[in-house]
Each structure stands twice: as structure tokens, then as C-alpha cells.
Amino acid sequence: MRPEHKKKSIRSYVVRAGRMTEAQKAAFGKYWPDYGLSLYNGKVDIDTTFGRSSPRVMEIGFGMGGSLLEMLQAEPEKDFIGIEVHPPGVGRLINGAGKLELPNLRVYLADATDVMEDCIEDTSIDRLQVYFPDPWHKKKHNKRRLIQPQFVQDIRSKLKLDGVFHLATDWEPYAEYMLEVMEAAEGYENLAGVGQYSPRPDYRPITKFEQRGERLGHGVWDLLYKRID
Fold it and tell me: How far apart are CA 149 and CA 208, in angstroms?
């Protein structure tokens, strides 16, 4: 399986040549028909896809899927759409969800900006989460960062009124950058107050990487913004 995308000059990710395990490969054959969505099928009717009308959560860049798998189980009343470009992570997530027979997941193996543009209806998402995106540390690579002024407005268009955009990072300069972008963004309200970071909400699991960082004294910064317009 390869990630789906349209042609563009700048990407917020590099597709790593990570090898899939046999279990991850098998998961695509066994579970992709249940969980997989295609960028090339255009706009998705979320209620029809899940067979119910429930609060909708979208996660962009779920990595190896551990946190998202926890959320699927902790919030069974919500329907989750995950977007990821790395096949091993997608394989691991759908393998875990399939074994647990979780019905509240759908996944795109695709470029998130393309999915947002072509597949997701406006004002259709209750919560959109981006956890630990690549900070692209070098200044010459900053243009590759996912969180950009235009992107956060694209996000806003997909959120329902009062829907929440939740960001998290473990790199303080990126946290400061994201805070600057979000504070300047029209149509959002910072749920922690102007210029403030939010405490980690209970629904976001603590990752093993995060636990290790906390023991070493490293911080994690959460930002929660509500669509108000």
C-alpha cells in the first residue's frame, strides 16, 4: 500500500521507507475493506459510512496509532477518522482495531491536505486533533510545517460551530510558533484564555514517548481552540 496524494510542490512530511511487519501487511488484506477510505472517491457521507449519526473526531498524522486506538475504546460513542501517510502505522492501527472488532474507525492512507480538500464536507467535524506533528526544526524547512495560517483556516471550515481544534507538541519552539499562528487566526477562541496553553484533556492518552520525556523533565504543550465563527 502506498499513500494517496495529488501533486504539490511542498509537503509537510517525508514518506519514510519503513518496512511493514507481516502482521501489518496481513492487516491490509484482512481489515482494509472494513476501515479504509480512498482519497479518490471524493466527498464522504460520514453518517452513511459509519451507519449512524454520532460526534465525529478526525486525527491528522496518528503515527503508529497507539493513542488513537486507546481513544476508539475510551469513546465508543464517537466516530473517528484517522489520516496517516505511513503504511506501517496504518497497518498497526487497523490490525489493533480489527482484532478488537471496533466499529468506530475509518482511515485514509493519504495526504491530509488533499483529504481535507476533496473528501471532508464543511462544518462536519466536532473535534480535529493534530498531535506531535513534525516540527521541521531547521529554519529552511519551516515552510514544510503542517501548521500554517492557511491550513488552520482550512481546518476551521471543516469544524462545526463550537468544534474544537486540538494541537499538541513536545518541542517548545514549535509550541510557541503554533500559539502565534492560532492567536492570529480568525474565527477561533483559545479555550485556555488568550495566549495560554491548555492542560492535557483526559481524552488524550499519554504516549510512552511522552512519559519518558516527563521523567527527563521535558514538557508537552497542548493548545485547544474552539471555532466561534
Answer: 31
